[in-house]
Amino acid sequence: MVLVLVPTLVIANFGVTSQSVPLAVAVAVVARQTARGDRGSVGATLARLAPGAAMSESVGADLVCVDLRREVRVGPSARSH
Question: pTM of the predicted model, to two decimals?
């Protein structure tokens, strides 16, 4: 049982990590665009860098917070972007 469980967990962890890195890149780009006032290009950036991600933002006097969320798929249903 352990011989099956450990490799499965390692593979699942790799799958989740490989999907979170592009999302982190996308959130950094979108936060910079939002801070610069370039909100018109945010939609195209999300479609290109993080398709299917849902975005929420909070803009203060000197701070921009952007949150991106996307379903993580692991295993045969996972697709490469």
Answer: 0.66
